[in-house]
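Researcher: I'd like a structural prediction for the single chain below. Treat it as a standalone chain; there are no partners to consider.
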Amino acid sequence: MMTEMDWLILTICCSLGVFILGYRGWRRFQGKRRQARGKRKEIQAEKLLKEAGYRILSRQKKGRMVYYIDGQRKEQVIYADYWVARGWHHYVVEVKSGRQANPQLAAVRRQLLEYRAVFRPHGILFIDMEKKRIRRVDFEGQARGFIPGLAGSLLGVIVALAIQLIIR
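Model: Treating it as a single chain, here is the predicted structure.
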């Protein structure tokens, strides 16, 4: 025969179990809802990019990062929202909405630096879907676009020709 205390403990345990299951379900629902919202925002971002004159070359552009920890090789797959082009220039694109729609946030900034290292684009485009705004993010020391590379190549050719003329 169960006492009142046994019933109380059983009720508390059952209530706690129902609460935990309900909370997990609610979190799963929120995650799916957030994911669906993100997909909708990415589709809207495509329209913004096309209106701004960018050609979409790839969605969910995949890149690989290789690094070493204590001499052990590690590899990480990185996905950027878009890989786009305008003229001769190629850009990696990150789309953010909500509280993450700020390129000055530390986590977002680190993500953009990671894209720079892995994809080596001419530039990084950050799309703030709350303001429907495309922003270009550059980091100090980053070569800007095609011209610096072309200028360096031309200078190299000129130097090589000058050396050839001097040697003869």
